[in-house]
Amino acid sequence: MIRFFDFLFSLLGLIILSPIIILLIFLGIIENGSPLFRQKRVGINQKLFFLLKFRTMHKNTKSTATHLVDFSKVTSFGLFLRNTKLDEVPQLFNVLIGDMSLVGPRPSLFAQRKLISERKKRGIFKVKPGITGLAQISGINMKTPTLLAKTDFKMIKKLNLSYYFYYIFMTFFVILKKIVNK
C-alpha cells in the first residue's frame, strides 16, 4: 500500500511542482552551469543506485557527505535550496521509479562505512531508503551514525501507513517552521 502512495504522491508532486522544477533548473544553469547531479547511494539490500538532487555546491566539488564539505563550497543559490529543502525535489523521480520511498532511512553514500555498518547490524537495509523519516523530523543527521541508525531502526520497526502520513506531514511542518524562523 505504501508503494501505491509513493507512486501517486511522487507523480502528483512532479506534475504540480513542474513549473518550480523548471525554474530551479534554469536558475541552476545560470549559477552553476549544471543544476542537477547524480550520486551513488546505498539502497535496499545494500544495492547501489543513483540519487538525484539539485546541485547546491560548486560543480567541481568532491562528491562526499555534505557535513564533510567546506561550507564555502556551497553556492548562494545552493544555500537557498538547502534551507527550503528544494534540493531534495528531484528525488521524487527516485521514488517514482521505485529506488526510494517518500518515508524511510536517508540513503547513505557507499563511503560512509560506519553508518553502513551500524545500519547493517540493525537490518535497516531491508527497507527502501526515503526522502524523510523520524531522523529528519528529529534533526538527526549523518554526523552521528550510531544515533542515526538507532533512530532509523526505531522508525522502521513501527512504520505503517499512519506513521507514513505522520512523517510526511511533520516534514512539511518542520520545513515551514525552519523557513519562518529564518
Give the SSE map:
Layout: H1 2-16, H2 18-32, E1 36-42, E2 48-54, H3 76-84, H4 91-97, E3 101-103, H5 113-122, E4 130-132, H6 134-138, H7 145-158, H8 161-180
Parallel strand pairs: 3-4
Antiparallel strand pairs: 1-2
Helix pairs in contact: 1-2, 1-4, 5-7
Written account of the structure:
It is a single chain. The protein is mainly α and 182 residues long. It contains eight helices and four strands; from the N terminus they run ααββααβαβααα. The chain has helices spanning 2-16, 18-32, 76-84, 91-97, 113-122, 134-138, 145-158, 161-180, and strands at residues 36-42, 48-54, 101-103, 130-132. The strands form two sheets. The chain has a two-stranded antiparallel sheet with strand order 1-2. Strands 3-4 form a two-stranded parallel sheet. Helix 1 (2-16) crosses helix 2 (18-32). The radius of gyration is 16 Å and the shape is globular. The termini are far apart. The mean pLDDT is 91.
